[in-house]
Each structure stands twice: as C-alpha cells, then as structure tokens.
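Hello Y.,

Per our agreement to keep a running log of every chain we model this quarter, I'm adding this entry. I've kept the format consistent with earlier entries: sequence first, then predicted structure.
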Amino acid sequence: MRILGARFSAVAFGAVASFSFAACGSAALAAAEPGPPAADAGAPPPYATFVKGAEVQDGLFGVVRKDGKVYLAIKNEQLDQDFYEHATTANGLGGYGVLAGDDFEQPARIVQFRRINDNQVAVVLPQTRFEAQPGSPAATAIGLSTAESVLAVAPVAAEDKAGGKVVIDTSFLLGDTIGLGNLLSDIVKNPTNPLGGYHLDPSRSFFGRTKAFPENVIVEADQTFGSEKPDTIDTLPDAHSLQMRVKYNFAKVFASPDYVPRLADDRVGFWTNARVEFDRDDSYDNQRRYVIRWNLKASDPTKLSPAVKPIVYTITNTVPTEYRQAIRDALLQWNKAFERIGISDAIKVQDQPADPAFDDDDIRYNPIRWLTEAHDGGFAEAQLEWDPRTGEIFRSGILLDSDMMRFAKFDYHDEISPDAAARPHRGFLHRDAGAAVAARAGALALTLQGDEVPAGYAHDFLEAIVLHESGHDFGLAHNFIGHNAFTAAQLRDRAFTAQHGVASSVMEYSPANIWPKGTSTGAIWQTALGPYDYHVIHWGYAPVPGARTPDDEVPTLDRWAAAATSPSYAFASDEDVEYPTGHAVDPRISQFMLTGDSIGWCNTQLAMMSGLMSRLDARFPRPEVPWDQERFAFRLLVGNYSTCGLAMTHFIGGEHLSRARRGDPNAPLPLTPVSRDEEMRAFGLLDRYMFSRSAWHIAPATLRRMVYSEYENFDGFGYAETPRHDISLSDLVGRLQQTALNRMFAPLVLARIDDLPTKAAGARTMTLADLFAWTQSSVFGDLATAGPDPSPLRRNLQRAYARTLEHLAVAPPAGTPDDAQALALHELVAVRDTAARRLKQSALDLQTRAHLEALRAEINRTLEAKREVPPDAAT
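Predicted structure for the entry above:
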C-alpha cells in the first residue's frame, strides 16, 4: 500500500487529462449524429456516448473496455455499500516463490465506492478491526481514533443519470498493490547484487483479461517488473523483464443475516478473526476472536435448512483423471462429521461442468485446481475467503502441486536442511513440502525392506492430503499433538487404523506408518477422520439451542471444549512447534511423529533407517539409471533420520503444556515439567544416533557412489553446478549436530532448564548441570577413556561443541542465565586439562595431535579473554 500511495495522485491526474480529451471528441460526435444530450461543460460524458465502440460486460458491476483501459460501471445503489476485494497472482514463476492463483497474496477485504464530487469516486477500505454498537458513543470515539484507507481516487469517466450508474477508471489497479516488486526482489536474495531488485515498469504494464459474473467481476493487470541485473531465474528467456499477471476480484458481500459469529476457544483448533470491541468493559481483554467457518445450520435433524446451500466443490479439468477419485473420497468423508450434528450432505463434489461458459474465477464455485511447478517439491494449499468482520467463510478451494505425486523422483531440496523447521509459516498455507517427502521416504523404506509398495499407496496419500487441506477450508487449524492419542499397538492394527487413522486428527502432519519388516502394520496414511475431527466439527458447527448472540453460546461451548483434557480431543498448533527459537516447550507436540511415545517410535525409526542405509547399494541405482537415484534415496533416508534425531532435543528442558481451564475434568496445571528419566531417555537417543562414535557409519563405497548427473544445457535452463560432485558426510553430519546443539543451548531453553527446579515441587527433573554433563560425556567422553576417535566427524563435533561452550563463556547471548556461563567455563577447563594429558602420550598420530593442540589453544584464548557483559545485565 505504500507504493500505491506514491502513485495514485499521478495516475488520477493523467486519467483526468485523458478524459477531458475524450469528452471533447464525444461532443463532436454528438453534433454529427443524433444521440443523448451533450454533457454540461466539465461534467462526465453521457454513458451511451462513452460506450460507443467499447466492449461492455455485464455482471455484478458493468465492465467497460475502451482504448486500452478498463472501467467499472457502478449503480448508484451500489455506492457507499460494502463489497469484497482481493488480489491474487494469475501466473507464477514455475516454482520460484510466486504461485498462480495464490489466494493468500491478499485476503478478502471490505471495499466501498464513495462519490466525492461530480468527477471523482473514492475507492475506500473501511477499517474493520475496531468496532462498537452503531450510533453509540464508543462508535463515535472509534471514528475519531482510527483511520480508513483510500485505495484510490478514481476519475469518473461517464455517467448514466437516467439509468442511475457511474463509470470509473480502474487504472489505479496497474500499481503494485500487493508488493510483487518486493517479493520478486526477495526471491533473488543476493546481497552481492545491488542491481538485482525488481521494480514496476508502468510503460510495459497494461490490462489483461476481464470477466463479469453475477456475483463478482475480475480485472487483470498485466504488469512488467524490471531488474537492471537479475540473478538467473531459468524458467524465463529474459529475467530482466518479468510479466506478472494480477487478478483483482470485486465481489458481493455474502454475509448471512442469520449468521451468529462464534467466539473462539484456545482449547479447540479453529483459525480466528480478531476484533477489538470498545463498547464493553466487562473483560480484562477487549479483543474478541471469532472462528473462521461456514454458515451451516440444520433446522431439521435429517437435512440442511432449505435456506442454506451445501458446500459444493468442483474438480476442475486441470486435475489428472487418475487422481479425482481420491480427492472426491476425501471431501465426501467430512459428511460423516457433519451428519453427527444433524447436517446431511453438507459437502458435495462435482466434476467441472461441460458448459463452455464455466470459469473457476466465478466466485460461486469452490474449485480444486492442479498446478505445475518446476521447483516446489510438492505442496498443497487450502484456499478460503472469509468476511473480515465476522469470520464467515464464503468461498473455498484447494490448490495441488503436481510434484506431490512424484514418488519415484526421490528428489527434494530441503529434506535434510536442519533449519527447515525454523522458516516462518506463511499465513495459513500448507506450503512446506514435508508430506511429499514423507510419501517418497515411505515408498523408499518399503522398497529397501523388500516389500511391494501397495497398489493404493498413491490414492491413500492424496486422500490424506485433501482431508487435511479441506479441513483448513472449514476453518480448522493444524493439530500437532494428534499422534499422542494412539499407541504403537493400535497403529500396527489394520482394523483400528482403518476406523480411526494413524492420529486423532487429519490436521496433523503425519509420516508414513511403516514399521520394520516382520512387524504387523496398519494403514500407512491418515485416510479416516479421527476422534478429534468429529469433536472439532461438533464444537464449531453444531447449533447451540436458544442462542441469539455469540455470548449466549459461551456456556455450552465451554462445556464442549472441556473435553480437550482427553488425548483424543487435545489440540496444539503451529506456535507449539517453534522449537528452533526455544518457544515450544512440550515434546509431545511435534510434526511427522507417531504414537504417544515418540521416543519409542523414534528409537524404532532410527534403527530402521540405519539398517536401510546398508541396503542402498544393492537396490540403487537400477541398471542404466543415473547415479542420482541413489544420491536422492540416501538424502531421503537421512531426512527421516534427522527428523527423529532432532525431535529428541524437544525433551531437553521440556514441559507438558495444557490448554485446560480450571474446572475442566482431570485438568492438570498449565505446565508440568518432563521427568528427568524421560529427558535422559531422549538424550540417550541423541547420544547414540547423533553424537556417538558408532553413529553415522556409512560404507565408503556408498559415499563414492553418490554423485549427480551434470548437464550444461546450451540455454542454461536447469543447470545448477555444485562445488563438489559428492555429498560431504562431514558437512551433512556437522550441520545436523550443530542444529541439535543450537536447540539445546538456546538462551530460552537454558533459562527454562535453570528455572525447572523451582517449578518441579520435589519432582525429579533435569538441571543445567545435567545438560552440560550429559553433553560433555557424549562429545568428549572418548578423550578421558578410549582415546580420541580418528574420524573427522568426531573431531568436527568436538570443535563445534567447544565453540558453543566458548561462546557461552565469553559472549553469552542475551537471556542466557549466569549458571550456564559458569558451567560452560567449568567444562572448558575440563576439556583443556584432558587434552593436555592426552598430548603427553607419544603414540598420537599427527592429525590427532594437531586436533588436541587446537582445542587446547582455543580454550586457553577463551579463558584468558574478557567476558562481554550484555547491556541489559550491566544496568
């Protein structure tokens, strides 16, 4: 919007100037042939005169195309009324961060067209966040305290006084209203290339297609963004010039007169729409959070109310035929949950109509679309739009990327990236491609174990994905504690998983439910609604008898939400898995985990992945297939391995978090420290599979096989030279080990561990001394016992941990407790003294001696250095 503000005055001035010329031409034409009366001097020309020779489309607004410009014809009764407006990209970059049809580029917002004089209409975005009863003193105060946004002041191009409508110029839509210039520049992300940024070029921007439907109109702006010296974006012939198409959608307001917004509850997982109410002071918090949901009411227990339409999904012709049944099965399965609350046939599914006039831009449709992207690795996105004042959903859909189904590809960019979980969530998107990686890893594990990938594997996986995304379409948030509800025995029971799935909710991120060969197993994917899914739909959509206002519903909703103390109905979402920053505290809450004993599950998975590593050479690559195949398979195994390895850091300083309220049945206190035994058990897996001498034993021949095929294409497309032909095991393992250390020794985690004894009330929980002692023994234990390990992996780990201790001792990050700094100094002295004793031995090889000398020298420099005192500590 800042960019728009800089451009609007110039656009409006230019448009008025051009229309003065057009008015003179129209007057001359009127003198030559009969027609409507000439306009008054300075007044807009008559509508009938203006549209001669123009293309006119009739819909919610009239759309007029003339002389390369686009105009909206707005009826007088539509002025000063609320409409929805939102913008989305109509094309993408083939997988480089911009998607075609991404509804979350700009969520729906309220817009009004206000006539401010004879020649201008203001396009206004009223503020919708702060509210009070209309006409009340609080409402008057809000009007004085808050500001609206003026999207544009549009020139009036023509007027039909008899017909009661006014025509406005929409040239303001050619501005960069959604910040694409910044987004394209961010994609380059090369600090050494200051000329690589993108900016809008108005001289190469113009209007594209326009569409008019009964309940919405589409205006497309085809905009060119230029760069003086872009980094290569190899999907385009000339990356200096990117033509991005932005679709602006203006739609009628779908607010239901009988809709009662439902107040949110943090014990139940719905996305929320926050408001601030100023006409009540009976609460310490005047924020009112309404859930985002459809308006579905059942006046009859056997059918929908005649006044309410079911949610009808349309599978567009972009979706490959072989995948449509899985999509249909997933969507219709939600009817089971709605039927339990008396709503039958709430969800319907249809194929795209044969009608050539069908267009999924028509807001009356809820489309399922298929996308082809070159570098996204497979993702799915729920697409929903809601009233920003009440949270009422009026449209939804699902976007599916074709790479989601490429199981044999075994190629993914981030499956072993240790910082993947640290990336911020982007709105409500399921944009991380972890599900696609899980599908490939599951198929690989079955193959390496000598099992056939089941015939229904692809169908069940896609059904699980669509179940998840359509849950978002109904307003449901992620639930990352769903796996905690079931036991390992239940997950190995085919009958149980067929009925309940592999977690309590489809809103989990679930891995493939695969166990070591010879172990019975249930369903591989979450293809059934879990108990939480029935619970959350009941809480969010079941009518509350006699309730007329949101507050009337609260006592009943409180009673329903109290069930969250049961593992089957527990809820935890995105904020609860922010482990890289130290914010997340409950190790039961995790992504791509199974069973209520994640340590036990991971022990099984880590052992299985270790065993499968030794089978790679026998299976891959297949005859006459490039060596890349084994390289990709290896990366997938390491990805699964690292998921469980890093998950064990969640237990260090962990606390069980409860959303239960006082008075809920069996409600624990909000925080309960994880027991020391459980923390030690988790650290045992870290020691064994991440840090120990016995971890990461990959056959030398396997490492020599993992090269990639190199093709230097003439036009450069797809060519990405890497410095090394192989995979550096030292670098890969070192990054994972450093990530584990960073998470355990993050300032928030250290501070929490330091406080645990004050909250444990006599219970045994770990201390900072435990953390430092356990890690010291794991990393440096061989120095005092068996002698230094000759492996470079071990030496690199020891240097990395020594630097972690050095940093804590001399320059501790803000928030690090003093106890941690003291323990870091203590452990450094112990390592230095042990290294000194080992250096007195004459049998040391040169590399080991150099390593020990470097350790001793670095530690001595640290111990002699002055400690940096953070400013907050100094004051």
